[in-house]
Amino acid sequence: MSDLRAVMTASYRTLAPDSARFLRLLGLHPGAEFSSASAAALTDTTPTEARRLLDRLTRANLVERMRQDRYRLHDLVRLFAVERVREEEPDTADPAVRRVARWYLRAAARAQLAEHPHFPTVEGEPEDAPLPEFATVGEALAWFEQERANLLAAQRAAFERGDDDTAWQLSASVYPLFEVHRLWHEWRDMHRLGIRAAERADDTFGLARNHLGLGDAEWLLGDLDAAVEAYESALEANAVAGNPWVEGFAERQLGVVAWQRGERDGSATVHLRRALEVFREAGERRGEAMALLSLADVAADPNNLEEARTDCEAAIGVFTGIGAVWSVAWARCTLGRVLTELGRAEEAVQTYRAAMTVFGEHGDEDSLAVARTGLAEAFARLGDPVQAGAALRAALDHFRDHGDHRSADVEARLRAIAAGS
């Protein structure tokens, strides 16, 4: 160890001042590996300058180039760099970490808007550091997959250094990206930390946004009691913050959970109609359509199918009008189910296939599996067990790969097809 330290110290002393400073600050990067753009934000340099200094440090064997534009520090080099910061310029550490955490927040928000243009990100004040450009949804999702661990690390680093606004804004701004990839536990953990940050900052809007996101994560994880508690906490915080987007979606989700729990006392419809009212008053068009879609689900359950079809088509019209492509696809899944029950299975097949095309383009394997289960039912109603079975087997592969409880239902349906029922 002492020999390695001696070698590092000797190498460090030969560095030019700009390279030495750059290396010191690299030690503060929250991620295990990083891009030149994030290194530029961390060190307050331009991307061009960051690449030049990274090349120089790579040649000096102080930075390792993993692949194109991905770098890392050996653990011992990182420790050495952090020691140098503490000894030589301790006051630079917190601002450096804040810069890179804010860069990850804003870059991830840009990826989020590429994937979901109507999601309200929370980015705070604009800053000068250049951000990645995403020409397609696929590019945004690929960036997220590459940087996901760094987003989590950046939030943690921001929180640990007292940058509470960045910590709660990060979790509030990007959780649909975690949803697309079924990263529900990471999503939940981000919101738990975001809530702690918002509490410390005494920010009711931050609390409302993070409780709402936490509720969605708990709901998808199957803990309905925890989901309801989170949605009610979101409404409580939002009573001060006064944000209609939060209120509308919290009310909508309380309605969805009530219906999912089998509550048939009208409480689900009360929540959903309250959500619809809030969204319409605020001009929140996507929220309006989501509330309509949930009302369609409720109407379809007791076989009030024409009302459900009307609500579905109204939702699709709103989604189409605002260019919410993924949401149109999701609404088509509900419409497909309604059409199947109405005896219009051939239309349902086309509706599901249109939805599946969009889910495939978005890399949304979970929604694709859900659409396939609906498609299978439409084929079954058409008397085509071969295609019904193929759709179910494709869905089952996905559910099994993720240990999803929905695999049991799909397996039962496959057995029924095999038995000829």
Describe this structure in words.
The protein is mostly helical. It contains 20 helices and 3 strands. Strands 1-3-2 form a 3-stranded antiparallel sheet. Helix 3 packs across helix 4, helix 8 packs antiparallel against helix 9 and helix 16 packs parallel to helix 18. The chain is elongated, with a radius of gyration of 25 Å. The model has no long low-confidence stretch (mean pLDDT 93).
N-C termini distance? 70 Å
Measured by DSSP, the beta-strand proportion falls in under 5%
Indicate the radius of gyration in whole angstroms.
25 Å
Structure summary, number of beta strands: 3
Uncertain spans, ≥5 residues at pLDDT below 50?
Answer: none
Oligomeric assembly: single chain
SSE series: HHEHHEEHHHHHHHHHHHHHHHH
Overall pLDDT: 93
Basic shape: elongated
Give the neighbour order of strands across the main sheet: 1-3-2
Tally of helical segments? 20
Short structural description:
This protein is mainly α and 421 residues long. It contains 20 helices and three strands.
What would the keywords be for this entry?
single chain, 421 residues, mainly alpha, 20 helices
Topology, pairings included?
Layout: H1 2-13, H2 17-26, E1 33-34, H3 36-43, H4 47-59, E2 64-67, E3 70-72, H5 75-88, H6 93-115, H7 137-160, H8 164-180, H9 184-201, H10 204-220, H11 224-241, H12 244-260, H13 267-282, H14 285-300, H15 305-321, H16 325-341, H17 345-361, H18 365-381, H19 385-401, H20 407-418
Antiparallel strand pairs: 1-3, 2-3
Helix pairs in contact: 2-4, 2-5, 3-4, 3-6, 6-7, 6-8, 7-8, 7-9, 8-9, 8-10, 9-10, 10-11, 10-12, 11-12, 12-13, 12-14, 13-14, 14-15, 14-16, 15-16, 16-17, 16-18, 17-18, 18-19, 19-20
